[in-house]
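Troubleshooting log. The previous structure file for this entry was overwritten by mistake, so regenerating from the original sequence record. Sequence copied from the archived sheet and checked twice against the printout by T.R.
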Amino acid sequence: MFAVRKAADRGHADHGWLNTYHTFSFSSYRDPRHMNFRALRVMNEDWVAAGQGFGTHPHRDMEIVTYVLEGALEHKDSMGNGEVLRPGEFQRMTAGTGITHSEFNPSTSEPVHLYQIWLFPEANGLTPSYEQKRFADEERHNRLRLVASRDAAEGSLLIHQDAKIYLASLDQGQSVTHSLASGRHAWLQVLRGSVTLNGQALATSDGAAISDETSLTIEATNNAEVMLFDLA
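Regenerated output below.
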């Protein structure tokens, strides 16, 4: 069973310095039909203008994953981390008992295009922590590369939730298959290009909630990049 979330149906706000789309209710966008899917609470697609960014702000009791598609994002936090996130790199932050951080586009001319993803943690009050890691293009070329998991398997980032996050870059006509264990659910987010999901057409920035399926086949109808969440 699939419930497709079309890109054009998402919440949207254009603040000038920030152009943002919300798959789930966030900030001033509220829709009781789209609050979360399983542990997945936020799926924001953002474009941040050159020289602009999110000022220092707090988080707590949330697993925050950030992925940059184009440009660069400078991160600073109260744990002492100061990094620049670039395409192909994932960042994971456990907010736990509380952190503050800022995110800034250091470019003087180019916007940064990113996804910011929040998952509910498996427990509140965790010790805050941070990771950043690059996953080579060849590791996800026409295959699903595990990039985050509860046990940091296969060199993936550690997330404190019964979830696995995969990334794949697919050439047109190529496909990948993922098996879902009994009782598991999934979310597919199309980052670029277009695909079919078990025959269901999905375009750039579309998402799909998946339940009561045992096998997922994702085929690229154009060159595509997708993120797949395997969720309890």
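Residues 142 and 170 are 5 Å apart (CA to CA). Archived copy saved in two places this time.
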